[in-house]
Design goal:
There is one protein chain. By secondary structure, the chain is of the alpha/beta class. The protein has a single domain (about 5-195), classed as NagB/RpiA/CoA transferase-like (Rossmann fold, 3-Layer(aba) Sandwich). Helix content is about 30%, strand content about 25%. The chain has six helices and twelve strands. The protein has helices at about 5-20, 25-40, 40-45, 65-70, 145-150, 150-155; strands spanning about 50, 75-80, 90-95, 100, 110, 115-120, 125-130, 130-135, 140, 160-165, 185-190, 195. Strand 11 and strand 12 form a beta hairpin. Helix 2 (about 25-40) packs parallel to helix 4 (about 65-70). The two termini are about 25 Å apart. It is an enzyme of class 6 (ligase). This is 5-formyltetrahydrofolate cyclo-ligase.
């Protein structure tokens, strides 16, 4: 799954620069607004097990939302790079006391513990980070294809956890160039809006 379109590469660079340009106060406000959006989202209210991510490279910070989910007694899981299957993710239970390590991308993830792994099919929602999105629900990721592989079964058969994109409002573009393996999102949350695509 290597990008073959140079415009995807250029767009990825532009949008990463755009979200990194947000000030600290803008990031803090966006993180609090995300909590507000989650509080009123019906799929979130119904979910018991929710996979999230930890912010990197200017991504929308989900930690205030994760703390709110914990207060609602919902289980939170984080992606961990699969140690034996390149390009794939495992999901581990994440709590306030989870021992953390940095993966090869420099992103914090829970230390691998097989007792904390849950099959991704047992999750209710997978909150996916992204670099850019458009009004049709097309998503541009970082280029590794990790979430496209994770969500392929849902995309093809509507089985497994429902994806929920998470992004800053400034990450919207007119059109995301598509590749055949891309998994469009059925819904997405930004600080100012909840998008429903299908």
């Amino acid at each position: 799954m290597q990008d073959t379109q140079p415009d995807r590469h250029a767009l990825r660079g532009l949008m990463r620069q755009r979200r990194r340009a947000l000030s600290h106060s803008e990031q803090q406000l966006a993180a609090q607004q995300l909590v507000t959006q989650f509080k009123q989202h019906p799929d979130v209210q119904a979910a018991k097990r929710i996979a999230f991510y930890l912010a990197n490279d200017g991504e929308l910070n989900p930690l205030p939302t994760i703390h709110w989910l914990w207060a609602q007694r919902k289980e939170v899981y984080l992606p961990v790079l699969h140690p034996f299957t390149p390009g794939h993710l495992l999901f581990l239970r994440y709590t306030a006391t989870s021992p953390m390590v940095r993966n090869r991308y420099g992103i914090e993830e829970p230390e691998l513990d097989v007792l904390q792994v849950v099959p991704h099919s047992a999750l209710d929602l997978i909150c996916t980070p992204l670099v850019a999105f458009d009004s049709a629900g097309n998503r541009l990721g970082m280029g590794g294809g990790y979430y496209d592989r994770t969500l392929a079964c849902w995309h093809q058969h509507r089985l497994g956890p429902k994806p929920l994109g998470i992004a800053h409002d400034c990450q919207q573009v007119d059109a995301v160039p598509q590749e055949e393996w891309d998994v469009p999102l059925p819904q997405l949350i930004t600080p100012l809006r909840c998008w429903q695509f299908s």
